């Protein structure tokens, strides 16, 4: 029996936002049509996956009614601890692909397995001989990097910074030292309601000549990217005004 494929299906970046742009403004029609043909899914949250499938159906009719879609959630511990270190065995989730069904992998926003759970599923697919097909769509990290003016030839995504203020300050200084020494842009993210606190910590901790970029609400009508030296941020920044609902990507470099 021929195996099905694992499709990495990107989602628009407006998850949790008050307004949503038309789906075809964020995703190519080919991606939407490919997603519409899939009837088996692995996702973070079944409720939000169904909401996304409704948006797809409005553009390209689903191959099976929403209630007939097979939607499986990644375990809760994968959401909390991540699955990038290879400790979670996702092979049982791919049983349908071994039976010939294509499976779609979804995250809440953007590309699954990049700054989101899913890498364990892609890894398991390779181990089982299942083809992995990434579909085209928004990846906030690359959009932010491209718009920042920082080094796009040498960069690293380091995930989330510590929540403890003291530990966060130490980590900011470590990343800054690496960026200034090597020229490697350092990218990181935060839960939206903590964005203002992180921005304030960055403005207070970084050296005045370090460049800081913040990209918010990418691909939305309210999108905004600001990239200036910390000295300029200190002169004009109002960290407390960041929208707590808009996702953001932060970057520092030379």
Features:
5-stranded parallel beta sheet, alpha/beta, 254 residues, 5-stranded mixed beta sheet
Give the topology.
Blueprint: E1 6-8, H1 23-26, H2 29-36, E2 40-43, H3 46-59, E3 70-73, H4 76-81, H5 95-98, E4 103-105, H6 119-127, E5 132-134, H7 140-148, E6 155-160, H8 165-182, E7 185-189, H9 195-205, E8 211-216, E9 224-229, H10 230-236, E10 248-253
Helix pairs in contact: 2-3
Explain the overall architecture.
The chain starts with 5 loop residues before the first strand and ends with a strand. The strands form 2 sheets. Strands 3-2-4-1-5 form a 5-stranded parallel sheet, with helices on both faces. A 5-stranded mixed sheet has the order 6-7-10-8-9, with helices on both faces. The chain contains 10 helices and 10 strands. It is α/β, with parallel strands linked by helices and 254 residues long.
Strand order of the largest sheet: 3-2-4-1-5
Count the beta strands.
Answer: 10
- Largest β sheet strand count, sense and barrel closure: 5 strands, parallel
Radius of gyration equals 19 Å
Overall 3D form: globular
pLDDT < 50 runs, ≥5 residues: none
How many helices in DSSP terms?
Answer: 10
Helical fraction equals 25-40%
Query: Helix- and strand-based class?
Result: alpha/beta
Fraction of residues in β-strands: 15-25%
Beginning-to-end CA distance, first to last residue: 54 Å
H/E element sequence: EHHEHEHHEHEHEHEHEEHE
Q: Look at the structure and give the mean pLDDT.
A: 92
